[in-house]
Write a sequence for this structure.
């Protein structure tokens, strides 16, 4: 993907509308890192969000990755919460075999997403993912303090790891604040595809990202 900061556009809309939006955004593709979608032929990398992929037994997780690879997906967001370390290992290994970039969810963006999880689950997933060689993770863009903490984990790890963040726009997060706190790639859907002028909206968000990146400590 492009160097941060850059925007990931979430195409959580019907295929016909997604195709039209991608064409409309061609003029601002220099500000877009990737599109997040199930399957669509576009020039930028495709990030597959399986909703919620990798939350299954290891054998099924491997099948999920293989299917995504067959459709030309470049990267796959895996969600190991509730599945365990063996499923996470299978996910990363399957991605590597199929030349798909593994992206691992550390924490979700909606409220009470951790209600049924152990208090240190995010740290455990982070440690295991980094140990397996994962270099891209997902963390909530609307939870600034959590972003700062996870960015600190990355610094302590000594690894080059990028953060992709949902929760920006419709869920209340601000691109500038999220990038300043640690986000490299804001994942934004409704704010862009519900806009009257999606390309202009991307330009606006990208400017906010640059402002936040300059202020990052």
């Amino acid at each position: 993907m492009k160097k941060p900061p850059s925007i990931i556009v979430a195409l959580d809309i019907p295929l016909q509308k997604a195709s039209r939006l991608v064409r409309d955004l061609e003029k601002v593709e220099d500000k877009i890192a990737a599109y997040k979608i199930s399957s669509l032929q576009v020039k930028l990398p495709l990030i597959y969000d399986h909703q919620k992929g990798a939350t299954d037994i290891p054998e099924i997780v491997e099948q999920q990755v293989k299917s995504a690879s067959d459709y030309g997906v470049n990267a796959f967001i895996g969600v190991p919460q509730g599945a365990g370390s063996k499923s996470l290992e299978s996910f990363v290994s399957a991605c590597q075999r199929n030349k798909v970039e593994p992206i691992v969810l550390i924490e979700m963006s909606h409220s009470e997403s951790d209600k049924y999880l152990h208090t240190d689950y995010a740290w455990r997933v982070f440690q295991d993912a980094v140990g397996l060689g994962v270099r891209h993770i997902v963390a909530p863009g609307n939870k600034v303090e959590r972003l700062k903490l996870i960015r600190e984990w990355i610094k302590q790890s000594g690894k080059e790891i990028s953060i992709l963040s949902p929760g920006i726009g419709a869920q209340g997060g601000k691109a500038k604040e999220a990038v300043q706190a640690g986000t490299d790639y804001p994942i934004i859907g409704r704010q862009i595809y519900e806009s009257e002028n999606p390309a202009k909206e991307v330009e606006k968000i990208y400017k906010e990202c640059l402002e936040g990146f300059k202020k990052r400590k």
